[in-house]
User: Which sequence fits this backbone?
């Protein structure tokens, strides 16, 4: 009898547990209110800023003038508050340079008898003739023929030519004399003369003034001074 | 071999049938409860959204509600009469040397934004001669008194006869009901 009673009992218990499964599962799902629980705080959080906005507006809007349609009965005060911001109230002229005083009359300009331009004008000092002559660039001098070359033009004594200065003025110049050392010119207008000293040697070289002596030889003249060499040895380079 | 049929019937078939009935009933109850829960949850969410939306709309319109009657009265008034009376009051408060109304016109054609809007409107073209300061004050007050005015065009020319005055030509669109 025992096995016969045991089997239905086992079956009933198994059936009860199986049938109770959905109930437990339902209870487990019933605890899962994750979707619902945050929904209410989220909604409250979304509603909170909306409700706080009107309270925050006056604090930040102390200096912000709202639209005139909300002024209502306080329109004169609103207009005073609005127009107090206009910078034109403190300006003498408007953005177009017009004076805001309707009675303003422009003072007549005072014309001084002597203009500042006339007082400050100073005539340019004339270029000295010596500088004019120094500016002449000589290519070649032929002392035997009393000639010299400027560029490809040949001039000789008693020739007269004109020189154009940097300021545009022209000057008549006459060649007075030509030799190997200098050329003398004369200003035709003022009869002023100036010499152009010739130095045909390259820079750093100069003409020798003494005799040319070969090293190791002395002059035969017994009265001539003995030539000495510099004590500093010459460079081997 | 005895009681075989009874054992099969009462040991397996009947308990299985009972269990199946209980399981089926439980599943039916669960699905019904879940459906009801989801439906109520969706309704709750919709109601919350609607409530928040309503609060937002209320915050917007609560500021406008006290002004609605005045606004309606303003846009119901004839624009020409309103502008004339307001300009007269404004001109009385300003020095006549600094503010003079030289012309007023009411063009019948619609230009600008009014030409593409279904809202009723009218145009008004005003001309003034005066100093920049006085005309700016006058226009600020006029636009404050009549918020339904929308600036359409503004021309400023120097007046040749005076060192201080300018010629203003202004076109407004006045929204109407």
Assistant:
């Amino acid at each position: 009898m025992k096995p016969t009673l045991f089997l239905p009992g086992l079956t009933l218990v198994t059936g009860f547990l199986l049938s109770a499964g959905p109930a437990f599962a339902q209870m487990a799902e019933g605890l899962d209110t994750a979707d619902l629980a945050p929904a209410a705080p989220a909604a409250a959080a979304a509603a909170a800023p909306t409700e706080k906005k009107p309270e925050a507006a006056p604090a930040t809007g102390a200096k912000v003038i709202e639209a005139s349609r909300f002024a209502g009965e306080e329109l004169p005060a609103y207009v005073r508050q609005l127009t107090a911001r206009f910078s034109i109230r403190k300006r003498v002229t408007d953005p177009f340079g017009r004076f805001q005083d309707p009675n303003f009359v422009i003072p007549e300009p005072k014309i001084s008898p002597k203009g500042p331009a006339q007082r400050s004008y100073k005539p340019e000092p004339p270029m000295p003739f010596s500088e004019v002559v120094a500016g002449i660039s000589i290519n070649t001098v032929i002392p035997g023929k009393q000639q010299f070359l400027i560029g490809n033009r040949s001039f000789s004594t008693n020739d007269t030519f004109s020189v154009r200065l940097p300021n545009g003025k022209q000057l008549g110049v006459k060649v007075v004399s030509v030799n190997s050392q200098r050329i003398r010119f004369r200003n035709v207008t003022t009869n002023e003369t100036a010499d152009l000293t010739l130095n045909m040697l390259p820079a750093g070289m100069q003409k020798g003034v003494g005799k040319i002596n070969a090293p190791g030889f002395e002059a035969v003249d017994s009265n001539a001074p003995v030539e000495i060499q510099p004590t500093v040895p010459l460079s081997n380079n | 071999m005895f009681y075989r049929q009874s054992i099969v019937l009462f040991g397996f078939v009947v308990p299985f049938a009972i269990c199946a009935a209980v399981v089926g009933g439980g599943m039916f109850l669960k699905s019904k409860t879940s459906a009801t829960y989801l439906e109520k949850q969706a309704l709750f969410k919709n109601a919350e959204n609607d409530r928040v939306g309503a609060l937002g709309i209320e915050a917007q319109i609560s500021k406008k509600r006290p002004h609605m009657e005045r606004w309606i009265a303003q846009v119901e008034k004839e624009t020409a009469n309103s502008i004339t009376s307001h300009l007269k009051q404004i001109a009385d408060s300003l020095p006549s040397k600094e503010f003079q109304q030289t012309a007023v016109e009411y063009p019948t054609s619609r230009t600008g934004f009014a030409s593409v809007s279904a809202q009723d409107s009218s145009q008004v073209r005003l001309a003034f001669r005066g100093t920049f300061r006085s005309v700016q004050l006058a226009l600020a007050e006029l636009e404050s008194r009549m918020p339904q005015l929308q600036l359409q065009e503004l021309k400023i020319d120097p007046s040749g006869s005076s060192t201080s005055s300018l010629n203003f030509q202004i076109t407004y669109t006045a929204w109407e009901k």
The radius of gyration of chain A is 58 Å. The CA atoms of residues 11 and 191 of chain A lie 152 Å apart.
